Amino acid sequence: MALYDEGHTVAGWTGVAVATVGTTVTGLGVCAGAGALVGGGLVIVAVAALVTWGLHLAGWGKPPGVRPRGEWGMRVRDTAARSGHPGCLGCRLAGRGSAGRSALSVPAPTVAGDGTGMEEHRAALVGGAAGADVGRGAS
Question: Looking at the record, which segments are called Disordered (predicted)?
Fold first, then answer.
């Protein structure tokens, strides 16, 4: 076993296997000059991404980052997948977990200008504490 978490998971290996079949079919299509094989291979590669994502959401993947040593095995299921992993794009796309909530600077609905083409964009702070620094120069 390696000295670090290589991320070998059922989701990862299944996705790689399906994608390998897809790229093989695509390559055969290119060599044979058959557009249908090229298209079919590309569809299989897209299915590989969906299969990997589905298995990740079912708990057969891994969260971002390094897992504890006891969870490095292929047969260890990720119990936190149902609630979503922090910082995981796949979980956010599925509506699980939450992106980090922080203060957000959004443009105000009005723009002040003096006709010279140099407008002053004002920003409003949404979700931040009173007196929070926003924009350039904030530390």
Answer: 96-116
- The predicted pLDDT at position 131 comes to 52
Please tell me the distance from the alpha carbon of residue 133 to that of residue 139, in angstroms, as a whole number: 7
Strand partners, 126: 104
Q: Is the residue at 98 inside a domain?
A: no
**78 residue type, one letter:** D
What 3-state class would DSSP assign to 7? coil
Question: Could you tell me if residue 48 is inside a domain?
Answer: yes
Q: Which residues contact 14 (CB under 8 A, 6 or more apart)?
A: 51, 52, 55, 60
Q: How many C-beta atoms surround the C-beta of residue 81 within 10 A?
A: 24
Name the H helices within 33-134: 35-55, 89-93
If one counts the domains in the chain, the total is: 1
Q: What is the mean pLDDT of each run of 10 residues along the chain (139 residues)?
A: 70 94 98 96 97 92 80 82 85 76 47 57 51 50
Q: How many CB atoms lie within 10 A of CB 88?
A: 22
102 has which bridge partners?
A: none
